[in-house]
Each structure stands twice: as C-alpha cells, then as structure tokens.
Amino acid sequence: MAAFSLYNQHHPYLVDSVVLHPKSSIIKICEELKNANNTCFSQFSRPEFRQDIVPINLGVHQNRCLDQSTKVSLSNNESNSLTSIKNKNSMESSSVSDKYESSEQVSQQKVTSVVEKKRKRRIMKSPSNSAQSKDMREVKGKKQKKCADKKLPGEEKKLPEEDPKGYIHVRARRGQATDSHSLAERVRREKISERMKALQALVPGCDKVTGKALMLDEIINYVQSLQNQVEFLSMKLASVNPMFYDFGLDLDAFMVRPDQSLNSLASQLPTVQQCSSPTQPPVIPERNTSSLTAANCYSLLESSSPLLFQQAHMPNTLPQGNGQLLWDVDDQRQKFINETGFSNNLCSFH
Amino acid sequence: MTTLIMPSNHNSIKTRFTYRFARSLKKLNKNRPASQSMKETYRRYHMIRVASYASMASAVGPKRAWSRAVLWKIRNRTLHRTLMKKSRIHALRTRKVSGNPNDLRKLVPGGEGMDFSRLLNETAHYIKCLRTQVQIMKNIVDHCSN
Question: Which BP terms does GO give this entry (chain A) (predicted)?
C-alpha cells in the first residue's frame, strides 16, 4: 500500500507538468529522463512521457501505467497530430484501466523490487549501512517514504546519481534476503546451476538423474571413462605393429567418423580438386556417382572447412615422389599440410 | 555419433590436435623401431598417452586452466611421477558413489585450486576435448588395424 500511495503522489506531479508546460518543455524533460537510464523511477515516468510524444509506443507500456486513459485524453487535447492508432490505443487503455485492479498487485511488487534494488546498491556501496537492512520491513517502509519525499522536489537531480556502473546487476525478488552476503551467494548458486545444466546436456544419461550429487557422480564417471578410453586407445596404439603407422596421413579420415569416411572422401574430391590442385591429373571418381548429392557435398564442405581453406591458400607444389619426405618432417607445418592434402587426394582414389 | 558439428573454433581444435598427435606419433616411431618386448610396449603406451594429452592441451592453447595444468604436469613429470601414480591408484580404489566435488577436482587437471563454478566450466570444456580426442584416436586405431 505504501507503493500505491507513492504512485498516487507521483501522479499529480506528472499531470501538473504536462498541463503547465507547453509541449517543448515536455520534450526537454523527456530527453533528460532518457539520459538517466536505469533509474528507479524511470520505469514509471518515462513511458508516460514518451507516450505523449510517440503515440506508437503506447501499446508496449500499457500494462504498467495506471492513468493511461487520462493521459491519452490529455494528450489528445494537446497535440493535433493524433492518428487513428492513438485513438485505438485510448480505447484499449480504457479497457486496461479496467484491468488495473487485478494488476495492482503486480505493479506494487514491481515497485518494491525496484526499491529493494536501490537499497541493495546502496548497501554494496557502503557496507556500514548493512546493519540497517536487517529488519526488512522497517527499512522498506522507510525507504519508500523517503523515495516519495524525494521525488517531488527534484526528480531530475536525483536520477543521474543512481547510475549503476561497475556493479553486477542483481535483483532480489520479493521475500528474498538482501544483505550483500546472501546476494553474492545467490549469484554464485545461479551460476553453478546454470553450468550444471550445460554439463547435463553434455554428459549422456545425465538428464535422467535428479539431484546435484548424483549428477556430479555421473559426470565424474563419464570423465573417468573417457580418460580410461584414452588410456586404452593409447595402449592399443602402442601394441599395434608400428609398421602400419606410416599412414598416408589422410587426416581427414581421422577427423570424420569411419562410417562417414568413404562417403566424405568421395564427395570431397571435386571440391579439393577445384581449389587446390591444378597440377594434378584429372581423375575419374568411381564412387561418388551414387552418393554425391548437392546437400551432402555442402554439409561436408562445411565440416571440413579448415582443411579446404588451408589447401586453397597454399599452392600444391610437391612432386609425387616425396612420400619418404614424410619421415623427416620437422616442425614446418606448411609442408605438412601440403603433404596431407596431397596424400589425401591419393588416398581417396584407390 | 558423439560429436556435433560445431563452429569453426571446435573444428580447428580438432584439426590441430590431429596434426600434433600424428606428428608426435611419427616421431615416436622414428626414434623407436618395432620391438616386441612387453616392457617396451608399456613404455610406448606411456609415451603415446602423454603425447595425446600434450597434443590436446597444446591444441587447446593456454587460455584454459586445464590445458595449462596438463602442460605443466607433463613438463615437470619427472618430479611428480611417483607422487601422481600413487595418488591416482589410491583415488581409483577408494572411490564410492558420492557426488563429492573433490573427486571431480582430482579428475580435471588443474581443478584443485578453482572455485566450484569455474571447475564446472572447465569440466565441460574438458569433456568436449576428451571426446574429440577419443574419437580421433579411435579412428587412428581403426585405420592402423585394418
């Protein structure tokens, strides 16, 4: 109810300003208000001023404003440039004012949350004030009274000093604690739960589990199994006869999954040829008559774009007999890439 | 079907990992020609594992905490070898089902000193990279064993 009274006190001031000043002064005030963003009162005052000047904005802010019908009619008197849109809006806003009683609770809550936000900011600025905030009710009432008092004398003066810069924007809902420790804790918990959700999407089978502990357990198991897989695979690689190692380094074949690799090699062939190798002899692709469609080619071209890009920018100058050059590859990556592109082409033909 | 088609960032990590890993495999082969003894295979297994982790970490780059930790551990592994082995075995044996975040800290490299939300962030990235690593290594094994 305090919020409501605040609003009522706020209202005559606005009406007075609209009535007393000509339209140019209204524009000036509106610009001042625009400059002071994110202030606690601009939520209420700005839409109303704007609505006088830009009638199309009306529909957006209708739910917030208590006295829209009166305002609209007032601006009806003032400005001659009213369109049919505005008339329609005034019709709508009259119906909205009927609805106002149901939405009173909402707006009141909004006011309290705004006030809480302001108080929170004040607390973060000066921690010595946090002793005040222990009794929520009392402080809230005090604050609102203070706001209502301060509002009438100097609205424009008060607005710019509350510009929140350099603070994390936190808003406490109704009934939540607002001292700085619990605010920080709430932010931390939100962050954790958000990241938990991201992890839940990553780990298979984790979305069926409820509870943080079980989810963590799933994640731990998954990471462990992945690490075990790496160990197992490196064991396998170690036990493989190293003579098989001199792969022609068709790195693309490693990067796509084995079930796709045939397809992709066949369909990559034309694109690789046309961008990288004018020196290579033209080859008749046998395999891709069945599998190559336009969409397929496009998606694979996207997925293998880095290789194609590198190949397109480096002329393929290595002659064909350089297969044994693979063995003294030092850290020159460009040569390496060239060779891979080259042997890539070779590999896809047999 | 584990990996998604991601934006070019992820693709480039994949490409870089593949290059580095293949290169280090080749170096390993050059230094150490085939020998069938069990001990030699075990040594090779260790070196390949280290090479895969190192190439993944260097493919990711130093901007992630876990990759920094992996590289640091690998660089100083002569100092920490015995210690790491012991703690690892201990951790694997004594783990029970309890969603203790400290277990996750032990698993994710460099996770000991993080706060929890950062740890989760790093874990997500680490899981993605491990998946890529496993997939590429699988492909290489398939290729070699044919």
Answer: regulation of DNA-templated transcription
